[in-house]
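Why predict the complex rather than its parts? Because the way molecules touch one another can change local conformation, and only a joint prediction can capture that. The input here totals 672 residues.
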Amino acid sequence: MDFGSILQILDSAVRFSTPLLLACLAGLWSERSGIFDIGLEGKMLIGAFAAGAFSAIATMPVYDGGWGWQTGGMWVGMVAAIIASILLALIHGVASITLRGNQLISGVAINFFAAGITVLLGASWFRQGGDTPQLPAGGRFRPIELPLSETLSDVPVFGPIYQNLISGHNLIIYFGFFAVLATYWVLFRTRYGLRLRAVGENPGAVDTAGISVVKLRYSAIIITGILCGIAGAYLSLGTSAPGFGRDMTAGRGFIALAALIFAKWRPVPAMWACLLFGLLEAISTKYQSIDLGFMVLPGQFMQALPYVMTVVILAGFVGKAIPPKAGGEPYVKER
Amino acid sequence: MKLLTTLMGAAALVGASSMAFAGSHGGGATPALIFDLGGKFDKSFNESSYNGAERFREETGIEYREFELQSDAQREQALRRFAQQGNNPVVVAGFSNATAMGIVAAEFPDTDFVIIDMVVDAPNVRSVVFAEHEGSYLVGLLAAMASETDTVSFVGGMDIPLIRKFECGYFQGARAANPDINLIGNMTGTDGSAWNNPVKGGELTMAQIEAGSGAVFAAAGGTGRGVLQAAADAGIYAIGVDSNQNYMHPGTMLTSMMKRVDVAVYNAFNDVNNGEFTTGIIAMGLAEDGVGWADDEFNADLITDEMRAAVDAARAGIIAGDIVVHDYMSDGSCPVN
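Output of the joint prediction:
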């Protein structure tokens, strides 16, 4: 394996891990505030649909009922994705914070709702069996070449790394890594973050200090909605398969949850966990069968690898993962 | 994790129980069509069979019933439901339905069944098979001539002999045009989801482009959308499959390997309607126009006179028997790779 193909695998791993990373951070915000969220999948899915649908409408010619935009359609899609995802997050919030319902059931309901409504609306708007149309270049997030990537490409080792691995991704990917730092800083370096973590561990103490548990939890849920919306928008606007396809999240929301547990609800380890899952997926894509010299590992083995590794990692290497203490429990003031 | 498995089990149950049969009226000898995994609007294989059924409906005014498979478990169920409700013929496109077809066809000897892409040996079944290797040979020839690099590549859907047949024909065509050309082939997966995974298709294509590919042929159903898009983004040539996909990215779509699934569906509906239905194996190759390369206004600028002459000569040669394209499915191996 030469340097070029290693770079290419890492490059591909970054692309595969971005939607996981954003969803994982979304889950981190929610769960740190004490709201379990297995509805990440559904929120991503509706985000992907809203992004694909509205970007398609914005870039469609006027005579087809669109707005005829040549560029910038993806921003319409992005805003729509965030709004749609926040709406679902608020439903989860009302059910689990205000109405004190079971958070797991509410999450499952959101996943089913999203799986159904996206295909229903898609089929009725675009008449393509639930898919949205192909998006033109003006409706998608295209790779960005960072400055100097051409000039530096002749520098040994660093040049190709900068040109291939760091430069040449789209905006959402860079945002994903920025979101890791931002999440870390807000959660662990600000007063708001301290309170939010406290509300996930011991809401009674926070309430005693005169801070609203309900408001804090709603704020966390809205941030979860925003991040899930962006993760969904990445799937339909930022990959080489532009446009929404039914069930296009394909379980990523659940893998993100696994990564969250693996990372023990911490932002920077969450990034490494997601990159690891992305790397496994990239390896199984690139090497469909590996020749070890004495035997050939079949393609089926490589494709099962990400899932096998998920089980092995979760069962064997995580150690004891302790979720936020108040997670899953609706907060009831004692009378 | 236990919770997770419980939830997934629940999801699978809901998926299986939510079978809905679309269609306008039941009863009578209404033709029925079943789409395989990948979806009716995959812009490829299933969409081609849909187009054939629509053509029949427009010409005769006879409505047909349809069902989109969502999982493997529904194959037998869907066939049996249509047969029980008296639909005739029941047409299903996709090799994976052969086992289910074998069972259900024996239960309903008075119903006419049609399976596309696979052979089911029963007295009331028509099996339509295509000579995909011949059509793939032609587009391989075009790919090798058009490619600006010394490499061409292939992205398949599910790793099955049928898709290897496409790949093998394509590789033979490319080698015929340029004996020194490098060939890269990848498969998307080993289960039904490989027909609808455009993200992975795009990643595979990007890896092939990185390895020097100048033209890529996607034989992967809905996964092909990602392949064609990745090729268009990188500015290399791409070749569509089954339906004519040239319109999707004019300028980079070199051509499409047309497999006339639509004709097979249309003929099946029509033959039953006219009382001319025959059973047994129908083979559709270049000579029968069952396969071919798409030549329209979207790729007119990309096909040079030299390429056109070469591909026409190859087509004539194959029909006449002067050029023999090896069929992967005949012995499970490919002479070039």
